[in-house]
Design goal:
CATH class of the largest domain: Alpha Beta
Low-confidence stretches: 1-33
Helix content: 25-40%
Distance between the termini: 27 Å
Largest sheet: 10 strands, mixed
Oligomer: single chain
Strand order of the largest sheet: 8-9-10-1-11-16-12-15-13-14
Number of domains: 2
CATH architecture of the largest domain: 3-Layer(aba) Sandwich
Mean pLDDT: 89
CATH topology of the largest domain: D-Maltodextrin-Binding Protein, domain 2
Length: about 525
């Protein structure tokens, strides 16, 4: 990287340097004082969701997203602290005006089958995923062209500066695969793709209960701290706990918090803050005679929630209440919830009194991911709370894939309980997720002209102070719309037999990574 890097990228690298200060990387030879010899031959990882596909152009959950990144090349790859670092790219140069990003690829890049990675593959990836459903459109809204200028150089040209662009390249969407192979077998290639990332699929296909990844011998930043990664889909959280406790799994991303006291001493448990918020997402296209179509009813629900009780009873204290749409530590959070998010039944009942449902008759179903610890339980807790407003709430716990399909496609969908996430990136991307065209904006079917105008202004604004003010205004408008009702921090409990410095979740995100040996901290 040269002196033309955007300030955001310089800041990110500076944070990374500070975090690593005093930490001495190890090689494959020495024994760690408090851990095993590296590399580990195999780690068995327990997934909460099925690996339904390996295609970055298709929507997916944590299990798919994490796996796709591991088995794909990326120009920039998030390190363990959520900082985008050079991967396929040797360097990223940014023009003084912030309008031209020039990536120079490393020499002699190869996929896991020994075929070369080409600049044509990079351009092909852009064309394939730029309009795909899971692609975050915000950071690329100002891109006017992408072209390969020689056999190692690809240039992005923008109409306006976009400091969040480096983070966009670390997302799941921009996962590089060979144009020739994808085009030769568009229906079958992603069942067993080759890889320019740290791992490749050695056995198993999408939908299988076990998929095995092996270290890619051609990966330019290897060797990895783990040679073989065995991914087990275990939908039942109690089963995941038992398999970890008995040594049949080595690392589990999501465990029921109540199981913490049951593990043997060789299992380390920890709270993972994932950089997001548990929320109630409400379908904005329900018919007028449905109570959730009424904006005051939706605000009354928000006011009636006892977020502390939901955390303590359903999430067992690992997910503290929030005061707005953002997770703790985001400086642009305006704390939009009245009373700091504390329950206010009197105000809730006053709002309901002026609606057609003042005397009852408001009933709705909340769809959620049944296998996820605390999800159904959270609905049951706030269903009790909303009885104070004469509401009847039904919890609909489904397998993850079925829940996603209901939320996205069912005409009878009422509301969903899940989590907003950012997975790397600036606050504007996080808000797009909820209020414009992202994952949860699509599921709440939000279609608000004033919100669209605010995001259009944000896209076309360069001055940072002005951008920050627009981000605040988006939160105010979000509260007026009431399509998302925030509740609690997005945190889960994880467990490991190998510590947290080899296989781990990325700081402030939900996807997991395996750390290269050179970056493992003692």
């Amino acid at each position: 990287m040269d002196a033309k890097k955007p300030k955001l990228f310089i800041f990110a690298i500076a944070i990374f340097a500070i975090l690593l200060a005093g930490c001495q990387p190890i090689t494959a030879e020495p024994m760690m004082e408090s851990g095993p010899m590296l590399p580990l031959a195999k780690v068995r990882y327990g997934l909460p969701g099925a690996l339904t596909h390996f295609d970055p152009a298709l929507p997916g959950e944590t299990s798919e997203g994490s796996t796709i990144k591991l088995i794909s090349g990326q120009l920039l790859r998030f390190d363990q602290y959520g900082v985008p670092q050079p991967d396929l790219a040797e360097s990223m140069d940014v023009s003084d005006d912030g309008l031209v990003y020039t990536f120079t690829l490393r020499e002699n890049l190869m996929y896991s089958d020994g075929t070369p990675v080409t600049v044509e593959d990079i351009v092909f990836t852009w064309e394939r995923i730029k309009d795909a459903p899971p692609t975050d459109q915000g950071p690329i809204a100002n891109v006017v062209s992408v072209e390969a200028t020689d056999d190692r150089t690809v240039v992005w040209t923008l109409s306006l500066p976009e400091p969040s662009l480096p983070f966009w390249f670390g997302r799941t969407g921009f996962s590089v695969h060979p144009q020739a192979q994808v085009e030769a077998d568009p229906d079958g290639y992603f069942r067993n793709p080759v890889s320019a990332g740290p791992y490749y699929v050695a056995s198993g296909e999408p939908g299988d209960p076990v998929v095995t990844l092996m270290e890619n011998p051609y990966y330019q930043l290897g060797p990895m701290a783990v040679q073989e990664l065995e991914l087990h889909w275990v939908p039942d959280p109690t089963s995941r706990s038992l398999l970890l406790a008995t040594g049949q799994l080595d690392y589990v991303y999501e465990l029921p918090p109540q199981a913490r006291a049951t593990f043997p001493p060789d299992v380390e448990t920890f709270v993972v803050a994932l950089g997001g918020v548990f929320h109630l997402s409400i379908n904005q296209q329900l018919p007028d005679d449905h109570c959730l179509s009424n904006r005051d009813v939706r605000e009354a629900i928000s006011l009636a929630l006892d977020r502390s009780e939901i955390n303590e009873r359903a999430l067992l204290g690992v997910s503290p209440p929030v005061i707005g749409y953002f997770y703790t530590g985001q400086p642009l959070d305006v704390g939009i919830l009245p009373n700091g998010g504390a329950q206010d039944l009197e105000a809730a009942k006053a709002l309901m009194a002026d609606t057609p449902w003042a005397d009852g008759g408001c009933s709705f179903t909340v769809t959620t991911y049944g296998p996820r610890p605390g999800y159904v339980e959270s609905i049951l807790v706030f269903a009790e709370q909303l009885k104070e407003l004469n509401m009847e709430v039904t919890a609909d716990g489904q397998e993850v894939g079925i829940a996603l399909d209901i939320m996205a496609n069912s005409p009878d969908y009422n509301a969903g309980w899940a989590v907003t996430g950012n997975n790397g990136g600036p606050p504007e991307s996080y808000l797009r997720n909820q209020f414009l065209d992202g994952f949860w904006a699509q599921r709440s079917r939000i279609d608000d002209d004033e919100m669209k105008q605010l995001f259009d202004e944000l896209t076309n604004t360069v001055d940072q102070d002005a951008r920050d003010e627009l981000i605040r205004q988006i939160q105010y408008r979000g509260y007026e719309v009431q399509s998302i009702i925030p509740c609690c921090e997005r945190s889960v409990m994880g467990g490991s037999r190998i510590g947290q410095n080899i296989v781990r979740t990325v700081t402030g995100a939900s996807h997991f990574i395996v750390v290269p040996i050179a970056d493992v901290e003692q």
